[in-house]
Write a structure and sequence with these properties.
The chain has 451 residues and is an alpha/beta fold. Helices cover 21% and strands 22% of the residues. The protein contains 11 helices and 20 strands. The chain has a 7-stranded mixed sheet, sandwiched between helices. Strand 10 and strand 11 form a beta hairpin. The longest helix has 15 residues.
Amino acid sequence: MSNDIRIKKGLDINLKGEAEKSVEQAIISNYCTIRPEDFHGTIPKLVAKEGTVVKAGGVLFYDKSNEAIKFASPVSGKVIEVLRGPKRRIDAIKIESDKKQSYQDLGKFSLDATKGEDVKAHLLSSGCWPFIKQRPYDVIANPDKAPKAIFISGYASAPLAADLDFTLQGKEAELQVAILALGKLTEGAVHIGIGKNSNSPLAGLSGVTYHKVSGPHPSGNVGTLINKVDPINKGEVAWTVSAQDLVIIGELLLTGKFNAERVVALVGSSVEKPRYFTTKIGSEVATIIYDKGISQDAHVRVISGNVLSGKHIKPDGSLDYYSNVISVIPEGDDYELFGWNKPVFNKISTSRALTFSWLNPKKQYNLNTNTNGEHRAFVTTGTYEEVFPLDIYPMQILKACMYQDLDEMEALGMYEVAPEDFALTEFVCVSKQPHQKIIREGLDLMLKEIG
């Protein structure tokens, strides 16, 4: 049985460079880099120091505030460098891969007659727990607080997002085992959102409540699913898991191996032939982008993730821990003379003033990173509400975060939002305010003051 969720508010940004449905094996990366900044709020305590030889699934570090949460190496090899920042903060752990990929034997796990505490202990010790995140605060889930429900989005609506129906093909066994394991961690339901007309491998699994989602972006955001199904109130906790991470969890339970494999979409108008690649978490993006028709001299921006909420990385950077997309689009550091005062046909906008994208909603655009304006004070236009489907006042919650009014943030629904939920309002913002950064800082303040 499924429930339909139809989103009316939002905006589909049709960009050139969608990946074609073909998968290649990426060049095996010489190095794997894990950055603790991917795990927001985590204070790493190093286990594998420079010179340590690790297997895939071996522990690299644990969270200083909760020693039970361990972080595993995606590859086997030798830790050759620990990059540090101010006050000896650990910024990155660089592993030289031996390319043989030997795995730590973490033991097969049978779900028959097992309790939730046993599943939790196994996921914590194996390094798979960081794949489980929580609302409120959008951080790694606290294993000491049971969730009222678990939410998984199997429908990606972001611009040039990887097609989950395609990347999850043939992984039904791993998905089913992972779902059954997660179901033991909550007394509530496991909710999965899938496309209304999709042939998702997630469809037909047992132990879940399905929701068929349709409408413009951000209909595929897990925050939208939570808001429409079971909003989070003060004192409640919900957990979220990415659909592709279910495969890693499922394979761990079935085989005892931490196989941090990703099917990654290489997309964007600057890519000669966008398509999918099989690689590992933390691999060098250069093994994909420069081998596939992108010049090293090209003036482009490489993004680990989608163009709205992904992270800008250098061309010699690495795939971050949670992304399954590498977006490559033109760098927008040029300026148009009187660009604000003439008709525009090659850009997308929610406004009809001098912009005619509304005449052809299916047109694909080749957009760059130019913000087409400068930072200024908030302008009340009602534009945010047009693209924000959550039952929350976006302008008011942003302002409450800026002047740090905790009571108002609570009352406005801060417990259920994450920065990615405000990626579209940031895109359409005429004031060029950094909405996602504002929300992240607001969540950090609440976590510090309220916990």
